Amino acid sequence: MTDQKKEQKEELALSVPDGLPVDEHIEEVSEGGKKVQRRGVYLLPNLFTTGALFGGFFAIISAMKGNFDHAALAIFAAQILDGFDGRVARMTNTESRFGTEYDSLSDMVSFGLAPGIVAFSWGLEPLGKFGWAAAFVFVCCAALRLARFNTQSGKTDSNYFTGLASPPAATLLASGVWCGSELELTTQVSVFAAILTAFVGLMMVSNFRYHSFKGLDANRRVPFVSMFIVVMVFILVTIDPPKVLFAMAFIYATSGPIAWLIGFFKGAATKVAVDSAESASSSEVEEKTK
User: Fold this and answer.
1) Which run of H or E residues covers position 190?
2) Mean pLDDT, contiguous 10-residue spans, the chain (290 residues)
3) Is residue 116 within 8 Å of 76, Cβ to Cβ?
4) Using CA atoms, how far apart are residues 269 and 248, in angstroms rounded to an integer?
5) pTM for this model (two decimals)
6) CA separation, residue 245 to residues 79, 94, 187, 236, 285 (Å)
7) Other residues' Cβ atoms within 10 Å of the Cβ of residue 262
8) Which SS3 state, helix, strand or coil, does residue 211 take?
9) Residue 128 per-residue DSSP state
10) Among residues 99, 112, 136, which one has the least CA distance to residue 59?
């Protein structure tokens, strides 16, 4: 069969509707330097994405029933599954545009909508309009963060994120709710939760740089002390998971603005030193000319 007849057969197959009353997905891919159309989606990576999406959905349902510890665990489970789908797709060479868009929508639910609803259901509802406004700031900023990331993908330094990524932002809120569920809910606690929720949302749309840790390769040799540090982190997490996870997420969330402040003051100090040196040299020149 010639290539022309093969292409005609594929086009005919794509044009014939299936028997099932479900719209079949047809995607244009690059094979051998040519653009061709293929039916269907890859199953394995999208199963992980579906699992992450279910984690976000389960977190919302748990929060509505008042099971805030279960809601936090569901968000953490969604993060683990979300970390696998992209890696599985790259390892099995099953990356696709459909998978990328599906993953982004799943992230919006699991790391944008779910944490906002969980935080509101736990501690923001008593604040009325201020509570839901703080929750909406987080949800809206998560959507803006994901949209900006999708449009800038492949155009920025992969070692750094511009703005706080949505998974660690969700970790901060989820672990905070998990910690707070053990406390008596007072007005002061609700106000702190609202400020924290809005702060995390604003960090997602900020221009602060956050280390992505994508340079760490699990297949490369690392110093022995690195393995020791990883083990110690696991031990610390098992001692008191909500408090340790909250502390780690809070440190990471504040690392962006802290690094910016350090760089700002260093730059200001350097500018002052340069200006002083230039002023001193110009004074010496004036004295010599007199």
Assistant:
1) helix 187-204
2) 56 52 66 67 88 96 94 95 86 84 94 96 93 96 93 74 92 94 89 95 93 67 77 87 92 93 81 66 60
3) no
4) 31
5) 0.81
6) 13, 33, 24, 9, 60
7) 10
8) strand
9) T
10) 112
